[in-house]
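Internal tracking record. Fields below are filled automatically when a chain is submitted to the structure queue. Please do not edit lines marked as system-generated. If the sequence contains nonstandard residues, flag them in the REMARKS field before resubmitting.
Queue: standard
Priority: normal
Entity type: single polypeptide chain
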Amino acid sequence: MRFYNHKYRYKNDNNLLTTNNMRNICFYFQIHQPLRLKRYRFFEIGQDHYYYDDFQTEDKIRTLVEQSYLTANRTISEMIRSSNGKFKCAFSISGIALEQLEQYAPEVIDSFKELANTGSVEFLGETYAHSLSSIYDTNEFESQIKAHADKIESLFGQRPTAFRNSELIYSDEIGEIISKAGFKVMLLDEAKHILGWKSPNFVYNHSYISKLKLLIRNQKLSDDIAFRFSHNNWHDYPLTAEKFIGWLADMPENEKIINLWMSYESFGLYQPAFTGIFDFLKALPYHAMEQKMSFVTPTEAAKKNESAGAITIPYPISWAGHEKDLSPWTGNDLQQEALNKLYAVGERVRLCQDKALQHDWLMLQSTDHFRYMSHKDAAGTNYDNAYEAFMNYMNVLADFLERVDYQYPTNIENEELNELLKTIHNQDNEIEELQAEVKKLKARKVKSSEA
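SYSTEM-GENERATED OUTPUT FOLLOWS
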């Protein structure tokens, strides 16, 4: 096997490639962008049912495509090709992000299809809308899991077997739902108050469902790449691939899996190309294989490594901040008010056949809208403050709720509404069957007259 890039070359050396006791490196990259809401005023409620700032949405996507996604995909493709498929990684791309890429940057979708065809890339399952449905609405959570898996399969020919929830939110209850949905692996973040003395560099399993394997992000090493790489005041600056792999090589011998997970925007946006981030990435496989390390996808990591034991997580955790809790999205009264009003109509929206209403329902669930209402973490917002974000969202939500109520009035109980819709659906089916029978009879009549 040979590996070429600007500086590195692999030689045929079987000792570099295979051993059952190899340390495994598991890369996964997240891509999600919400549809940006336009400035929606109170007097527009009931008058304007289009909620999105298309210019801002397209501008953000094009910036990411040009500065990050395309160059990063070319880099990953080169790493896979030049390492003869030995470099492997995974992607978690929300359904909302996929829709935007299809509309504004189809060339990125094509490049992901090329990566899928290499056999070295795994696409993870997640919620279609990058939503908080796992906390607020189990039926919606299950619906979005299926919708996202269908989308991934239709685009990339893979049915996800590993699951990454929005914001790496996880609990025992959520894990149970994921296991019942057919997934074998779930990803979660390193939370010190959960792991205690345990290392993230092992495979674990669900507290009472042993077949569901759990992979845990190595927070420090992931953030060294994603956030600290170009900080010249960091004590480990500059970070080279050789130095980084050296850290991994110095870890205890029994720690066999290093999970390095980060936003894909880390490559090209958070760490611009001039910092050398893409050269750093390209050099990793060379130094890793020199140290007899291999690259695996999350599903492969779970298969290759035995569980070190069960992890019990009774309350939801995420990958946010030091607390690893849900406070960036649910931590104040504004956020809770918006979330409770939104998810109160979930059952009615799922009963309806209005495609525009259902699409808006998904778009309004993105976690970003609620993070913009946070008093402590509102990264990426174009609002002046949390209250402004809340008011704009609530104006949009008020119009959305009016549309739901117009079709399915709140004075009709959900069960009653469901029965009415079933009756209508059955009548439609009966009409279709009768129309088909009429066509058959007409066809027979034509044949008999011709005879």
